[in-house]
Amino acid sequence: MSALEEQITAVEEEIRNTAYNKATQLHIGRLKAKLAVLRLERETRAKGKGGGVGYSIRKSGNATVGLVGYPSVGKSTLLNRLTAADSETAAYDFTTVSIIPGMLRWGGASIQILDMPGLIPGASRGRGRGREVLSVVRATDLVLFLIDPEHPNLRALTAELEGAGVRINQRPPRIVIQKSDRGGLTVSSTVRLSHLAGGGAAQIAREFGLHNGSIVFREDATADQLIDVLAGNRVYLLAIMAVNKAELMTPAERTALAASLLPYEPIFISARTGAGLDTLVDRIGTALKFIRIYVKPPGRPPDREEPVILRMGDSVAGLLRKLPGELDRGFKAAQVWGRSARFPGQTVGREHILADEDVVTVLIARGGSRPAS
After folding, report:
1. What is the pairing mode between strands 331-337 and 359-364?
2. Which strand (E) or helix (H) includes residue 311?
3. pTM, whole model, 2 decimals?
């Protein structure tokens, strides 16, 4: 074991052995910050040695879903059921790691599903080529956890993702950090702090080498949330979960397992028989929050057969990226009909947020309107 790994192990052990209470809260926060810095150093060294981090896949479709589970829970069978993927010809090979893609259609959207090797304990530390697998997970839009009656430990799976800097069903903390080369460190907040009062934030920041600058809290964040912002390499992903091989479970067993998995609402399926897959597909599509935008060339009806698929929160600028390049380059304004418009045909700019089933006409700077098809 290297000296760095020995340091990481020692800090992890100290955190486990320290009882959490008000008196130890600050000390544990500093330990967690120190651990985060050591782990960042480990990642940096692994990259320098070609340690297998940073793999990527060719993303396609409107969104990408990663299948995450233990070995032998039925991920490949589920992929084939959902997408009819050909694993012999479509695998992305990362040395000993194969990522198998398939395409699912839902409500006009194309959803790329990725079947990844099963995670094992220690994956976030590199066991079983875990870093390569987790680097692919980080690039997805939605995680689909898959467990079965023999492998029901969801907490161990989420722990591996957390160890790789993936935050599940969370949003980025509302903490603003600015660095400076002089003047010391100031900490302020727009809300009352209950977790990081009494200088805790400054001590955590100093573990990351931040001695000059400012930290502004816009929410009552925890030490873990501040560490995530200081680390700067976290990703925030949505996740849903399914229990495969549900045909092997009694109703009482399903009820007990569902209770143990809260706050997740598991979808009980059988990849072998197809039971529950329609519900799963709808849950995937709903979780991805697609919106359909109908483009209307001037003087013609909107194209309702081939909507442009965007995600909730996307703006006119996002729509332009999906349309021919000359429309983006020559963009003057857009006219919008639908729920996002204050009145029919409202003229808006690039920053206007669109809603599901909006109708949009793009206006260009020279020559007036031009068909967006």
Report:
1. antiparallel
2. strand 308-311
3. 0.81
